[in-house]
Each structure stands twice: as structure tokens, then as C-alpha cells.
Amino acid sequence: NLDRNVEKLTGIGIDKVVLQEKLLPALPQLARLNSSSLEATLDVLCEFVGGAQLAIPVILEEPVLLSFDAKEHIQPGVEFLVVMNAMPDAAAAGALVANAPGLLKWAIEGSMHERRQAALLGGMRRSAASSVAGASR
Question: What secondary structure does DSSP assign to 69-123, as a single string?
Fold first, then answer.
């Protein structure tokens, strides 16, 4: 996987030396990330911020973004960022992230927290409903 992942990252323009000296030490799991998942994440990141040249500094500042799944983490994080910042669209959020990459990580974490809370509340509601139904018998 590492060779394929390195190929994908150099393919968008990340220098191999920078990759070895900066990216790999910050994200050692790059060696075992699924190449298809990494490619999907790169595609979403590049499209979101406005192209590979704008995505490179984002990736170098927040390498952990590469470890997030495109559909499960990045896209919901983008939606969270748009809503929480009352932005007109994802393009505006992408421009913001291109200048402050940490915001996307924050948004992904916020989205994940929100989904965990919703699942917890849903479980509590089902449990309460079961208790009420059981008590009424």
C-alpha cells in the first residue's frame, strides 16, 4: 500500500522528499491506508479546496485528513462546516479551509461528535419507549 499511496500523493504534486520527511512521520498509518480510500479522500479534498495545488498545503498542515474516509468523514465534515459557519456553499467553505486547514479537521470531529450524540439519544429514546411499553402491559 505504501508505494501506491506515495504514487498517489506525488501524483498530485507532493514532493517525494517532503512526503518522506514531513508527511510520513506525521502520518505513519499512510503505509497501511487503503489506496482506493486514499484516492477518494484526495479527490474530495482537491475538489473541495479548489484543486491539487491548493490541497497540498492543506494536507501538509493537517496530514491526519488523509486518514479520514471521504464519504463517512470528509463530506459530513464539509456539510458541518458550511452549516456551523452559515456559509453560502461548499465552495466558500473550501476557500476558508485552503487558508485555515485546521477548520476541516475541527468540522470533521464536530460532525463525528454530533452523529455519536444523535445515536446515543436515539438509543435512549428507544430504551425509554421499550420501558414505557413494558410497564403498560
Answer: -IIIIIHHHHHHHHHHTT-SSHHHHHHHHHH-THHHHHHHHHHHHHHHHHHHHHH
